[in-house]
Write a structure and sequence with these properties.
The complex is a heterotrimer of chains A (582), B (242) and C (356).
Chain A lengths: L3 H8 L18 H5 L4 H29 L10 H37 L7 H23 L13 H5 L4 H28 L12 H33 L12 H35 L6 H15 L14 H29 L8 H24 L1 H7 L3 H31 L5 H28 L13 H34 L42 H4 L32
Helix pairs in contact in A: 3-4, 3-5, 3-16, 4-7, 4-8, 4-9, 4-14, 5-7, 7-8, 8-9, 8-10, 9-10, 9-11, 9-12, 9-14, 10-11, 11-12, 12-14, 12-15, 14-15, 15-16
Chain B lengths: L11 H4 L12 H36 L1 H9 L3 H26 L4 H31 L24 H37 L9 H31 L4
Helix pairs in contact in B: 2-6, 2-7, 3-6, 3-7, 4-5, 4-7, 5-6, 6-7
Chain C lengths: L18 H34 L16 H30 L6 E8 L2 E6 L4 E3 L1 E5 L4 E7 L4 E5 L4 E5 L5 E5 L5 E7 L12 E6 L1 H11 L4 H11 L27 E3 L5 E3 L2 H9 L22 H19 L24 H10 L3
Parallel strand pairs in C: 1-5, 4-10
Antiparallel strand pairs in C: 1-2, 2-3, 5-8, 6-7, 6-9, 9-10, 11-12
Helix pairs in contact in C: 1-2, 4-6, 4-7, 6-7
The chains are: A mainly alpha (582), B mainly alpha (242), C alpha+beta (356).
Chain lengths: 582, 242, 356
């Protein structure tokens, strides 16, 4: 950015430390972190643990891909392989994808974006993290002592009567972890309702807030159901109570209904916040207001609501009735429309914008492309007659990886780059950032596109070996594994330069991009209570102004930390933020 | 932390002095609103939590109507009705406790109503424990190896298998057990509130904890209002054999 | 919606070896076309905009734009309409997949960790291999002894879960002789990926030879044996005429309506017979005492299926008096479920009657 040199000088003292008091240097010591009630610090705690689980889950993915390079199960035994894909699924779904954007970026940004000092319940927020740690710890322990081999879907009666692995321990971890999601969702909903700054009306909210609000609704209404379902599995295993056991009159398909009632909306838990991030990125990097703001905002809510009505499309082959199948199919098409509306609106926003190709924008554009393919292949799966053929094949695997990795992960990476200057007060290296984004994009497609073809050709999922006399299958699997290696390396690059940038990155100005959100009108990194004075919002969402007005200069200027002599003080124009006389 | 002195843009002055105001709220009104909404959202979550079990009840009730009726007949609807009355009364005393803090009655009055609520809650739990014990002695604990009503002199009616009978008891224990857990948690929460009330912390100006706890307590009460007819009255009403 | 597409071999698709394959592939191609169209359009637009409107000057400030209601309506309604065409097409294919024809060659399937057991009504039993004749309609009645499995034949584009405690059905009509993969598609434990084999589609004549080579008793005959071994005959009479025993007469029962103790009535089908064996008091036939003990855990799923075949044979015997050999197709007049099995029920019946 052009203001780099002055920013450097203004931001640091002669020892290279931040000149202004912010949430990072307000207090030191391990206790100040573990007992913090500051949403920004809690977000960083999540960032560390979620990243750990992500790389752990990634390691399992590597093992899966290595095994499938050859048709024979020669790298590991089938029992081990089953555990590996189960662990991959459990870690990635419950401990990475679900908490990633809400608990890290949402936690950090929601109060900043709406002009609040913190979330409504800071203690509960910290408690959420500890619950997450406890749940994650128990599940991790279950994996260490022997693991679990039921698949992340825990289908009965395999999980209740036949698996002799640590189902109860892993389930307990997921059960506990659920409460972390519930409390986070509760906190978000209450915060968004009650803590908005004066003038921050609902339709001035950034779309990231809308997306997180919709996500929180799912947290609140969906997570309890999976919690009780997993509890039932544990009881069935321990006490043989028979609720899913056909021998005692139970119905194993009931489990699938309960499971997917949560786990389908859970897909939107992963996707919606990512869509929120993309809306922010598209607006900022094309310097335009989002086309059809209200439609994009309400499409999030529509997705959350419709998302609860389509769970049965995971069960077209499960012997549910043909009419149930029809209804679930038609509603699944209905839920596709709000997603399509978002894509069209994003594209329309680009029209006659001022588009810069910074790393976050690259992720945003990649997101749209990958989400398109992921979403469109969802239509294949919702088509009843076709789903019979591709259900439980690699087609499904490819589809949901396009949504979860191509969608959720791209949004997460884009968001992390975009807000990294705000979070750490440092810039990441832009060239490396673009390079890594490109590598990830290429690697991702190479990994998962062949799986669509494999799936349609009939390769079932969760197979540890496949027919030897199908050379084409192996070719595609080898391509996929090669792609996974590229993807894995691509993901390591940001891991390295993010850590590097925390010490050596350029100091970030308050509004490096520049963007319009409230989070950019406070120093980078923000002070503990976010704003020196509570802002009063008098502008619409994504209302871009001439660059001189947008650049909030002087990251260090809070009332008790005057700027370095010889530098201009904070230049916030009177019509953007009104100072309170208090 | 650094900027505790920074206060809200508009409403900074009026309530800022109140000891109960958390640093990140602008004023008590906002804080109360947040607390109440939080409790409502929590209750929404609870509804879904019980919802899974209600769904299971519905599915198996429709699948095995005879077994459910017969098994329900073995529950003591008298005790169930007694407990219903106890719980409704405790809701009343809780409402009175909220009222007492709202209008600023003496700390003693506030605490009295809360104590009554706790006592009634404990009576409910006591009756529940008695019932559970009775089920244990009738071989109706739905755990493999323990469940043996026939061996304890409860005949299976025609067309009803032990497995189906067990299904009812399993749902009965899951639902009432989860409900009782909520009661126990409730009693655990009200004790610190009671102590705070004794120390005179609550006033017409600030009584959000009492009010929110009241919401929780009423919710637990309402769940029981659903459980009682579904579990106890089902057989007495249709089978009439009690 | 039978399009003329099925003849084209689409790349990256499995062999088309059943009547469904062409239909499913046609739907697939339709969806692929839609996907390519939308992906290309949007991607091209994005790339074009990203280049055309790239930021040339750091101070640029594009004019803000309000949304446009007509546009929003257009791009909600058009995709919805396209989606509905997919839905209707998908549903119509599904209906045909779902509704098994009345007259079809019946094969019983039991899934078990980790093998597929097939039983032809003529008695041949196979494990992980299934021989079927070309051009016949084949209906699988399936259950499992343990966990949920899912029978999947990619070349036929069919798949159905196999659920413990109930019967599920699946049908297909092979159109091409050959050997095709047979998989378990629902994760079922350690050796899930090993739970599969081949479906052999044979010319009808070859299939007859294959059947003859098996030389084993028909399913009904095997069921008859189970019937004797378990002492079922002491209560259930198997020939028409004369008074009932302590249980209902089984001859001529299959496919009929049975009045129950509570006044309702139920069609005697596979599921009802299975339930009556495993949980006899659940739907008690009118006029009988609830004295039958449960056979839960005493007969295996395979034996239950054999018993069903046996009870079924008692009806076909009394109604149509024998079997006609119908190859590959349907004769609307006959109640026979097995167009290719000439002699099964007679032998079974003889076997039973020998020891009343």
């Amino acid at each position: 950015m052009s203001t780099a040199i002055t920013t450097e000088e203004r931001a640091q003292d002669w020892r290279g430390r931040f000149r202004h008091t912010n949430y990072l240097n307000a207090d030191y010591g391990i206790k100040s972190w573990l007992l913090t009630k500051d949403h920004k610090r809690i977000a960083l705690l999540y960032l560390i643990t979620v990243t750990f689980f992500f790389f752990l889950g990634g390691a399992y993915a590597v093992a899966i891909r290595l095994e499938l390079m050859t048709p024979l199960g020669d790298l590991m035994q089938s029992h081990t392989y089953n555990k590996v894909f189960t662990h991959h699924g459990i870690l990635m779904v419950f401990f990475f994808l679900i908490p990633s954007i809400p608990a890290i970026l949402g936690n950090f940004l929601i109060p900043l974006m709406i002009g609040a000092k913190d979330l409504a319940f800071p203690r509960i927020n910290l408690l959420s993290w500890y619950i997450y740690m406890l749940g994650g710890g128990i599940t991790f322990w279950a994996l260490l002592i022997g693991g679990v081999d039921t698949g992340w879907t825990f289908y009965v009666p395999y999980s209740t009567h036949f698996s002799n692995t640590y189902v109860v321990a892993a389930g307990l971890g997921i059960f506990i972890n659920g409460f972390s999601s519930i409390l986070t969702g509760l906190n978000f909903i209450v915060t968004i309702h009650t803590m908005r700054a004066p003038g921050m009306t609902w339709f001035r909210l950034p779309l990231f807030i809308w997306a997180n609000y919709a996500t929180s609704l799912i947290f609140i209404l969906g997570t309890p159901v999976i919690a009780i379902t997993i509890l039932l599995i544990a009881l069935e295993r321990v006490a043989r109570v028979g609720i899913f056991d056909p021998a005692l009159g139970g119905d194993p398909v009931l489990f699938q209904h309960l499971f997917w009632f949560y786990s389908h909306p859970a897909v939107y838990i992963m996707l919606l916040p990512s869509m929120g991030v993309i809306s922010e990125l598209i607006a900022t990097f094309s310097r335009k207001n989002i086309f059809g703001y209200t439609f994009v905002a309400f499409s999030s809510i529509a997705i959350a609501v419709f998302g609860f009505l389509v769970w049965g499309h995971h069960m077209f082959t499960s012997s549910q009735s043909v009419y149930a199948g029809l209804i679930f199919s038609v509603i699944s098409y209905a839920v596709a429309i709000p997603s399509a509306v978002k894509v069209f609106n994003w594209t329309a926003t680009l029209y006659k914008g001022s588009i810069s190709w910074d790393t976050p924008m690259l992720y945003a554009l990649f997101f749209i492309g990958l989400f398109l393919i992921g979403g469109m292949t969802g239509l294949f799966l919702a088509a009843l007659g076709l789903d019979i053929h591709v259900h439980d094949t690699y087609f499904v695997v490819a589809h949901f990886h396009y949504i979860m990795v191509g969608g959720a992960l791209m949004g997460y990476m884009g968001g992390l780059h975009y807000w990294w200057p705000k979070i750490t007060g440092r810039m990441y290296p832009e060239v490396w950032g673009r390079f890594a984004a490109l590598v990830i994009f290429v690697g991702f497609n190479l990994t998962f596109f062949p799986q669509f073809l494999l799936g349609y050709m009939g390769m079932p999922r969760r197979y540890h070996a496949y027919p030897v006399d199908e050379p084409l299958w192996q070719v595609l699997h080898v391509m996929s594994t090669a792609g996974a290696s590229v993807l894995g390396l691509g993901l390591l690059i940001p891991g390295i330069y993010f850590i590097w940038s925390m010490r050596y990155g350029r100091f970030a100005p308050a509004n490096p991009w520049p963007a319009t959100g409230l989070e950019w009108r406070t120093p980078s990194p923000p002070p503990t209570e976010n704003f020196a004075v509570t802002p009063i919002v008098t502008w619409e969402a994504y209302e871009f102004r001439p660059i001189e007005e947008m650049v909030v200069e002087g990251p260090g200027e809070t009332p008790d930390q005057p700027a370095a002599p010889g530098h201009p003080t904070q230049r916030i124009t009177p019509d953007t933020i009104k100072h309170d006389k208090e | 932390m650094a900027t505790h002195t920074a206060v809200g843009a508009e409403h900074g002055g009026e309530h800022a002095a109140h000891a109960a105001l958390a640093h990140h709220f602008d004023n008590l009104e906002q804080q109360r609103e947040a607390g109440t909404l939080g409790m409502w959202v929590f209750i929404a979550q609870e509804v879904m939590f019980f919802g899974g079990l209600f769904l299971a009840y519905l599915v198996y009730r429709m699948k095995y109507p005879d077994a459910f009726m017969a098994a329900s007949n073995h529950l003591d609807w008298g005790l169930g009705a007694f407990n219903t009355v106890v719980l409704i009364t405790s809701s009343l005393t809780m409402a009175l406790a909220v009222w007492a803090t709202q209008v600023g009655r003496a700390a003693k009055t506030q605490v009295l109503f809360m104590v009554l609520t706790v006592v009634l809650g404990l009576v409910f739990l006591g009756v529940k424990a008695y019932e559970y014990n009775e089920k244990y002695h009738s071989g109706l604990i739905p755990i493999a190896g323990w469940f043996d009503p026939v061996g304890h002199g409860i005949p299976m009616p025609e067309g009803v298998t032990v497995g189906q009978y067990q299904m009812f008891y399993w749902i009965y224990f899951a639902m009432t057990g989860l409900h009782a857990t909520h009661m126990i948690v409730g009693v655990g929460i009200i004790i610190p509130i009671m102590i705070a009330a004794w120390r005179g912390r609550y006033s017409p100006e600030y009584h959000a904890p009492v009010e929110n706890f009241g919401l929780y307590w009423h919710f637990v009460d309402i769940v029981w209002i659903f459980l009682f007819p579904l579990l106890y009255l089902l057989g007495a009403h249709f089978g009439g054999a009690h | 919606m039978q399009l003329p597409l099925p003849q084209i071999r689409v790349p990256f698709t499995p062999e088309q070896a059943s009547t469904f394959a062409g239909e499913v592939d046609a739907l697939y191609l339709y969806l692929v076309a839609i996907t390519i169209f939308f992906s290309l359009t949007i991607t091209t637009l994005i790339i074009y905009f990203a280049i055309r409107y790239r930021r040339r000057d750091p101070g640029e400030l594009p004019r803000p734009r309000a949304g446009s209601l007509p546009l929003e309506v257009m791009w909600s309604v058009i995709p919805l309409m396209i989606a509905m065409t997919i839905f209707v097409w998908g549903a119509s294919v599904y209906f045909r997949l779902y509704r098994a024809p009345q007259e079809a060659m019946e094969i019983y399937v039991v899934g078990k960790q980790w093998m597929w057991k097939f039983q032809h009504t003529t008695g041949q039993r196979e494990i992980n291999e299934l021989h079927v004749p070309l051009g016949a309609r084949i209906k699988l009645t399936m259950t499992t002894e343990d966990v949920i499995h899912s029978l999947y034949v990619p070349a036929f584009r069919v798949k159905t879960d196999v659920v413990p405690g109930k019967y599920t059905q699946m049908w297909f009509e092979p159109t091409k002789a050959g050997r095709y993969y047979l998989f378990c598609a629902e994760y079922c434990g350690t050796n899930h990926s090993g739970m599969g084999g081949y479906v052999y589609v044979m010319e009808p004549t070859e299939f007859q030879t294959w059947l003859a080579g098996g030389g084993s008793e028909s399913a009904a005959a095997q069921g008859g044996k189970v019937f004797q071994e378990r002492g079922c005959a002491s209560c259930h009479r198997v020939e028409l005429g004369g008074p009932a025993g302590r249980g209902p007469v089984l001859a001529g029962l299959f496919g009929e309506k049975q009045t129950l103790q509570n006044g309702e009535s139920v069609t005697v089908d596979e599921a009802y017979i299975r339930e009556s064996i495993l949980n006899p008091q659940a739907k008690l036939a009118a006029g009988f005492q609830p004295i039958m003990p449960t056979y839960q855990g005493q007969v295996s799923e395979e034996q239950v299926l054999q018993l069903i075949a046996y009870i079924r044979s008692l009806s076909t015997e009394t109604q149509s008096g024998g079997a006609g050999t119908v190859t590959g197709g349907v004769s609307p007049t006959t109640q026979r479920s097995n167009p290719l099995a000439p002699t099964a029920p007679r032998g079974a019946n003889a076997n039973t009657n020998a020891n009343p």
